C-alpha cells in the first residue's frame, strides 16, 4: 500500500510517497518518491499580505503534477497541508478552494500548533529520556518544543523563519520573544540536546563534520554557517552546489538554530531525517487504518 503527503511551505512544496511496510508487529514507511519544488509563497505573503495570481497558477500546476504522480503510484490515501505562508495570506483559503476545484487536491491550511504536533509525533520516536529542545525552522515560522523523558513539557510557534528573515519581515521583537521563552521554559541546569528539523538544518548537517551519523556540534554548525556566508549568492550555487532557493535562506536559518542553541546552553544537535511530511504520512496511515476497521 502506498500513501502520500504534500507539504506546502513558505519556501518550497514537497510531495512524499511512501510504501507501508509490515514487519511482524511493527509498521514502517519507505520513501519511494520525493519531489520538492521552490514555490516561494512566503515572498508574496510576507511582502504583500496575499498570494499573487502568478503564485496561484504555479501552485495549481504543481498540484496537477503531484496528482498525476500519486495516480501513477496508485496512492490509497494522501493529505495536503499548507503552513505559514498560506495561513497568513489574506486570500489563502480562497486560493486553496480554487486549486481544489481545478485539481481535486484538497489543501488543509493548518495552524502552528497542528504543524508542531505532526512533526512531534515522528520526532519523539528519535528521543530517549534526556532533555531535548526540538527546533523546527521553516520559511515563515519556527516551532520550539521542550522534551523530558520523551514527554513534551512545553511548545511554542514564533513568527520568524528563513524566508521571513531574508525579506526583513520577521515580526517585531521576535528574537527577544524566543530568548524569553527559552529562559522561562527550558531547564538549563541539566544538559540539553538540541534536535533540528527542516530543510536548512539537514543541508547544514550534510556539510558538517559529525560526532555520529545523526549528531554534530553547535560550533560545527556555526563554522559551516560562516563558511557559506563568505560566498556570494552566485558562488553558493556554483561552487557549493546549493539550490538557488536554499542558497539565500540557509544563513538566516542557521542564525535561528545557533541562537536558540546558545540561549538554551545546548552544545550538540541531533538531526534526524524527519519533518512535517513524515508526520503527515503517519497521520494518513492512522486514518486509513481507522477507516478499514470501521467498515
TrEMBL record:
GO molecular function: pyrophosphatase activity
Signal peptide annotation: none
Pfam families given in the database record: Ppx-GppA (PF02541)
Gene3D superfamilies linked to this entry: 3.30.420.40, Exopolyphosphatase. Domain 2
InterPro entries referenced in this protein's UniProt entry, alphabetically: ATPase_NBD (IPR043129), GppA/Ppx_hydrolase (IPR050273), Ppx_GppA_N (IPR003695)
SUPFAM superfamilies: Actin-like ATPase domain
Domain Ppx/GppA phosphatase N-terminal: start-end pairs: 28-281
Protein name (database record): Phosphatase
Species name: Spirosoma profusum
Amino acid at each position: 500500500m502506498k500513501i502520500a503527503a504534500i507539504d506546502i511551505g513558505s519556501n518550497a512544496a514537497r510531495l512524499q510517497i511512501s510504501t507501508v511496510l509490515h514487519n511482524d508487529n511493527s509498521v514502517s514507511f519507505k520513501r519511494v518518491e520525493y519531489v520538492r519544488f521552490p514555490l516561494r509563497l512566503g515572498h508574496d505573503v510576507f511582502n504583500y499580505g496575499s498570494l499573487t495570481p502568478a503564485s496561484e497558477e504555479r501552485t495549481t500546476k504543481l498540484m496537477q503534477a503531484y496528482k498525476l504522480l500519486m495516480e501513477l503510484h496508485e496512492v490509497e490515501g494522501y493529505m495536503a497541508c499548507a503552513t505559514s505562508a498560506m495561513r497568513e495570506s489574506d486570500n489563502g483559503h480562497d486560493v486553496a478552494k480554487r486549486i481544489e476545484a481545478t485539481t481535486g487536491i484538497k489543501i488543509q491550511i493548518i495552524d502552528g500548533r497542528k504543524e508542531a504536533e505532526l512533526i512531534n509525533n515522528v520526532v519523539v520516536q528519535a528521543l530517549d529520556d534526556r532533555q531535548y529542545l526540538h527546533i523546527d525552522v521553516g520559511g515563515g515560522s519556527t516551532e520550539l518544543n521542550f522534551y523530558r523523558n520523551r514527554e513534551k513539557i512545553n511548545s511554542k510557534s514564533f513568527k520568524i523563519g528563513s524566508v521571513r528573515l531574508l525579506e526583513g519581515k520577521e515580526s517585531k521583537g521576535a528574537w527577544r520573544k524566543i530568548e524569553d521563552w527559552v529562559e522561562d521554559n527550558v531547564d538549563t541546569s541539566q544538559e540539553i540536546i538540541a534536535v533540528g528539523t527542516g530543510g536548512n538544518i539537514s543541508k547544514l548537517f550534510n556539510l558538517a563534520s559529525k560526532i555520529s551519523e545523526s549528531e554534530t556540534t553547535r560550533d560545527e554548525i556555526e563554522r559551516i554557517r560562516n563558511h557559506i556566508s563568505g560566498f556570494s549568492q552566485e558562488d553558493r550555487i556554483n561552487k557549493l552546489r546549493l539550490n538557488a532557493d536554499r542558497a539565500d535562506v540557509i544563513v538566516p536559518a542557521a542564525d535561528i538554530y545557533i541562537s536558540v542553541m546558545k540561549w538554551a546552553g545546548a552544545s550538540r544537535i541531533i538531526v534526524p531525517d524527519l519533518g512535517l511530511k513524515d508526520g503527515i504520512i503517519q497521520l494518513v496511515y492512522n486514518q486509513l487504518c481507522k477507516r478499514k476497521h470501521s467498515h
